[in-house]
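Quick one:
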Amino acid sequence: MTQSSTPPNGSLNLRPAMPADIPQILRFIRDLATYEREPDAVHATEADLLRDGFGEPKRFDCLIAELNESGATIPAGFALYFYNYSTWLGHAGIYLEDLYVSPEHRGKGIGKALLTRVAAIAVAEGCPRFEWSVLDWNAPSIDFYHQLGAVMKSEWKGMQVSGDALKALASSGK
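Output:
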């Protein structure tokens, strides 16, 4: 499943990630963490991505955006997503964990193409919901998502338990 379009400086190809893409995916993840002001927060390894993206059970899917310019194929961005489940809707949905386009390739329609492709996957899979999170200070992304028809959820706040707090919670029932 590939999707091609023509950004101003070449052709764009979207394709499912393959195990050989893992080093590039990890670079994109690290670049995204730096952009989100958390450069030291990435603990994922290539082995983690191989296990969870290409092993059983498969825990995520990933699309790679490539630009073909002057005969060269250049990785330009990625979208990493997984399925969740809505008990209220009685259907699986898609959660976009990461969307990233390298700074030098922004403004070429790559982010929109990646979001459009994941939305098309959601529709094809019968998923009534496609959602993601955005940092509250990331105004350019928020504006971009609004232009695509996304709405900010204001009634719900994300919650998380991790690290030692997760271990403490898990052992509190013993």
